[in-house]
Amino acid sequence: MGKTYASLDDRLKSFIAAQQLFFVGSAALAADGFVNISPKGLDTLRILDDRTVAYADLTGSGIETVAHLKENGRMVMMFCSFGERPLILRLHGRGEAIEKQSPDFERLRALFPELPAVRAILRLSIERIADSCGWGVPRYEYQGTRDQYFRYAERLGDEGIRKAQLESNMTSVQGLPGLAEPSI
User: Fold this and answer.
1) Based on C-alpha coordinates, what's the Rg of the chain?
2) For site-directed labelling of 170, which of 8, 66, 90, 160 has its Cα 20 to 30 A away?
3) Total number of domains in the chain
4) At 1, is the pLDDT very low, low, confident or very high (cuts 50, 70, 90)?
5) Cβ(152)–Cβ(42) under 8 Å?
6) Number of neighbours of residue 170 by Cβ within 10 angstroms
7) Structural domain of 56
8) How many angstroms separate the first and last alpha carbons of the chain?
9) Could you give the CA distance from residue 158 to residue 58 in angstroms, rounded to a whole number?
């Protein structure tokens, strides 16, 4: 049976920290708008306090989460145990995309390791914390971090990343505003 929590306690924080993968969900307001779910990995997540988390959003082929947050702020993060003990944890709340021109960007960026092509820090103010059993989630064994993203960013270099952001990160697939300006 699922349970809700008033804040992230030490057990939940430990569970989150142990996950190599998490998912971010957001949606446009339009009835025909897309729902977006993005898997996230690498060392991109930080717990800021008992009701706030943030992740470093890396340059990619789309900008859906940022665009949805700018439109309506709704976001959910989901963590699943793929190990021996099943558990699913969802953090629902209001998210914001903190871009390089924001006064908070550099302070938050400093919490993360040196990662290539960080385009924003996405911060979630948690309104609801809930777990569920996770009994239907299969067991998988973590084999390591992929290096393709790092090679991609190195191959593109700053100018290539800037060009990629201009081509695919300024608006969402449905035309919602994405990045205010390239991060590089």
Assistant:
1) 17
2) 90
3) 1
4) low
5) no
6) 15
7) 3-168
8) 46
9) 13
